[in-house]
Amino acid sequence: MRDTGGTVVALNWTMANVFDISRGDVWFSGSDIGWVVGHSFIVYGPLIRGATTILFEGKPVIPNAGILWKTVEAYKVKALYVAPTAVRIVKKEDYDGEYVKKYDVSSLKSFHLVGERCDPDTIWWVHQHFPHVIVNDNWWQTETGWPIASNFTNLTDFKQILPTLPGSVTLPVPGYDVQIVDDHNEVITIPNSLGRVVIKLPMPPSFMLTLWGNDEAFIKKYLSDTPGYYTTGDAGLLDERNYLHIMTRVDDVINTAGHRLSTGRLEEVINEHPSVVESAVVGHFDEIRGDCPVAFVILKGKDGADSLDAAAIEKLIREIIEKVRHDVGPIARLEGVIFVQRLPKTRSGKILRGTIRKLVDGETEIKMPATIDDPATIDHIRTLTTEWLDAKKKKALALAAKQANPQHH
Q1: Peptide bond into 174 cis (omega under 30)
Q2: Which CATH number fits domain 4-247: 3.60.15.10, 3.40.50.12780, 3.30.450.20, 3.40.50.2300?
Q3: Which tens digits make up the pLDDT trace of 48-102?
C-alpha cells in the first residue's frame, strides 16, 4: 500500500532529477505495465511531468533486434528505460550493433537500466553502440516505488553528471540512508566489504505503508530482522567513493568451504569472457565443501553452444573455469559449466536462481513460479542439469573404482 501524495512527490522528483524528463519530452519504458516499473514509470511518473509516454508490448527482438531503436527513431525518444535482460537478448542476436546503425537514435540522451543487477559487459555494450548517451544503472524495489540508488542526469546539487562505474548503481538517492550490515546487524564501515544492504528508518515518500490487510507480515518480512532498518533482502557493498554495488540476493550468497562468495561477482567475471552473453551462478550442495558454484552460461549467436563441437565446448569450459579462478580466487572454483539457450526468468527479467538451484540439486518436484516468463525454460534447464548430474555421477563412480583397484606398475 502507498499513499497518493507521497507517490506523486517521489515520481515527479525522480522524473525531473534522475531522468531529466519534462513537459514535451518523449519517454520510452519498454517494461510490462503490470510490473511496478509499469505503474511508476510508464503511467504515473511521465504523465505527472506532462511528458509523452510510449507503451511497448512484445519482445525486443520481434520482428528483429532493431525494434527498440526503430521505436526511438519513430518517436524521437529522449530517454529509454529497459531491463538489462532486454539488452542482453538484443546483444545475443546483434552483438556488433548492426541494427543500431540502421536507425537515427540521435534524439536519445540517456539509457536507463532497471529490474536486476546489470553486469559490466552489458553496460560496455551500450557505451560502445550509444557513445553519445548517459548510461544509468539504477536499483530499487517494488516496495519503494522509485530508485534507491542511481545516477542523476539533472540534479542541480551536482555540477556535472557523476562518472558511470559499470557494476555499480552509483549513489544512494536523497531520502535513502543506505548502509551495509553483517550477520549480527553491525554496520560495516570498511569499504568493499560484502554484507546485507539495509536502509535506515524513516523511509522517504512513496515507500509502502504496509501490506494490504496484513500489518504483521509487513513488520515480520521487512523490519524485524534488522531493527531500525528496512531489510532489502539484497547483498552488496559500498566502495571508497560510497558508490553502491548490489551483488545478489542475500539468499544467493554461496558459502564455500567457509568463504562467502557473491554469485553476482562470479557472473560478472564469466560475462567478461568474449564468447559469453549472459550467465547465472547457483550453489550445488557438496557434503565436504558446502555450496559449490555451478554456472549456467548463454553463448553469443542465435545457436549458442549448439553450433560448437565437443572439443570447442571443452575448451570454453576450461577457459571459463580458469578465468574465475584467476579473477576471483582458487576458492571460487566452478564445479560445473552448463551451456544453455535461455534461463528461467520472471516477466520483469529477474533470473529465478532458486528454481535453478533446486534443479541442479536434483529435486524432481518443482513448483512453477507464478511470475515466470517462459515455463518451457524449466524443462530446458531440467534436461541439461539431469545430463550434467548423470555425467558427474558416472565420473565419481569411475574414480571410486579406480581408487579401489589401483594398477601397480
Answers
A1: no
A2: 3.40.50.12780
A3: 999 999 999 888 999 999 999 999 999 999 999 998 888 988 998 899 999 999 9
